[in-house]
């Protein structure tokens, strides 16, 4: 979720009930520490503990140093990324590319766990491709190294985000280790959340893409799991308030030039499925001034209010209808 789960978005998701929001992936190469992008990714000012910082790389000692560096800057949890399928990550033998070398995985985990006195967690996929599914072996290596929790995205690296998530593989991982296992992949509704928990036996769920433009999904899932009923959807007024607050925080966090540009993708996700959303996004994406973006959102939602538009439980459900 690099480029998405920045501090403004993490804070927003936590406000809607997410128990933990992991930072954007930070490269372990020390030469990157001084770049503006890395500095922003390491910015946790005002965030509620626990602070989980995700690091990525392929060199055990470099990752150990990165873990210590981030621990010293306030990380309560160090999360290792061995699940990213992006080519630019895998091409340097990091992310999910590490799943091809179980020996290296073990050396990395041993080095990082030994380097810090805070919990180390791990994110993986089910394997490199359909012929090399080794999530169970990786899980056992991780548990032996002292990893405290394991998140499993139910696809191989070759699958990227295509096809259906392999919940049976996650269930097999859960049966194979005693540490907590977190299920990830295609969890986009409260009903699907309960299904995945029951199917996998997982201890927790990780939500990624489904929270884009819908941070209240955490509240919806929590309500459904506790009460067995679908929560009332957010009102149009609440959505408007969330969007405006998120927009303002993006402008503040990134500054005017980057803020207005990064806001475009978030507003695009929020307005998917809303009436005249396509036309609005076409207009919004041409705006280069924070005040113009705020005014455009105010005007758009006023038009929806005047038309008596009612928000569906999710944009996906409305599109399907």
Descriptive notes:
- This protein has 321 residues and is α/β, with parallel strands linked by helices.
- 49% of the residues lie in helices and 10% in strands.
- The chain has 13 helices and 7 strands.
- It has helices at residues 7-15, 36-41, 60-72, 87-90, 102-115, 135-145, 167-176, 190-200, 217-227, 236-271, 277-284, 290-306, 315-320, and strands at residues 26-27, 52-56, 77-82, 120-125, 149-153, 181-184, 204-206.
- It has a 7-stranded parallel beta sheet with strand order 1-2-3-4-5-6-7.
- Strand 5, helix 7 (167-176) and strand 6 (181-184) form a beta-alpha-beta unit.
- Helix 3 (60-72) runs parallel beside helix 5, helix 5 (102-115) packs parallel to helix 6 (135-145) and helix 10 (236-271) crosses helix 11.
- It is globular.
- It starts with 6 loop residues before the first helix and ends with a helix.
Jot down its keywords.
7-stranded parallel beta sheet, 7 strands, alpha/beta, 13 helices
Quick summary:
It contains 13 helices and 7 strands.
Q: In percent, how helical is the residue content?
A: 40-55%
Find the count of extended strands (DSSP E, 2+ residues). Answer: 7
Q: Give the topology string: H per helix, E per strand.
A: HEHEHEHHEHEHEHEHHHHH
Helix/strand structural class: alpha/beta
Mean pLDDT over all positions: 91
Computed Rg: 20 Å
Gap from first CA to last CA:
28 Å
How can the largest sheet be summarized? 7 strands, parallel
Percentage of β-strand residues: 5-15%
Stretches with pLDDT under 50, minimum 5 residues: 313-321
* Morphology: globular
Order of adjacent strands in the largest pleated sheet: 1-2-3-4-5-6-7
């Amino acid at each position: 979720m690099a480029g998405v789960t920045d501090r403004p978005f993490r804070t927003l998701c936590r406000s809607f009930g997410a128990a933990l929001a992991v930072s954007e992936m930070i490269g372990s190469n020390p030469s990157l520490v001084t770049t503006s992008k890395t500095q922003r990714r390491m910015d946790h000012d005002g965030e509620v503990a626990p602070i989980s910082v995700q690091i990525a790389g392929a060199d055990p000692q470099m990752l150990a140093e990165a873990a210590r560096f981030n621990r010293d800057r306030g990380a309560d949890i160090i999360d290792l990324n061995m699940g990213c399928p992006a080519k630019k990550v895998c091409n340097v033998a990091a992310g999910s590319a590490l799943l091809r070398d179980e020996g290296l995985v073990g050396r990395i985990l041993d080095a990082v766990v030994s380097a810090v006195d805070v919990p180390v967690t791990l994110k993986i996929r089910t394997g490199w491709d359909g012929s090399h599914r080794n999530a169970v072996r990786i899980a056992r290596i991780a548990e032996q190294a002292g990893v405290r929790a394991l998140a499993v995205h139910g696809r191989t690296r070759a699958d990227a985000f295509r096809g259906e998530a392999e919940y049976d593989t996650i269930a097999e991982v859960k049966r194979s280790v005693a540490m907590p296992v977190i299920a990830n992949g295609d969890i986009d509704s409260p009903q699907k959340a309960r299904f995945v928990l029951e199917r996998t036996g997982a201890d927790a769920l990780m939500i990624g893409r489904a929270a884009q433009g819908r941070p209240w999904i955490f509240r919806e899932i929590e309500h459904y799991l506790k009460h067995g009923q679908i929560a009332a959807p957010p009102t149009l007024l609440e959505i408007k308030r969330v969007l405006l607050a998120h927009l303002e925080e993006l402008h503040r966090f990134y500054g005017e030039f980057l803020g207005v540009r990064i806001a475009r993708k978030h507003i695009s996700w929020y307005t998917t499925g809303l009436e005249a959303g396509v036309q609005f996004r076409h207009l919004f994406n041409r705006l280069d001034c924070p005040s113009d973006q705020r005014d455009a959102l105010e005007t758009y939602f006023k038009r929806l209010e005047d038309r008596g538009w009612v928000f569906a439980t999710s944009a996906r459900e409305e599109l399907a209808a």
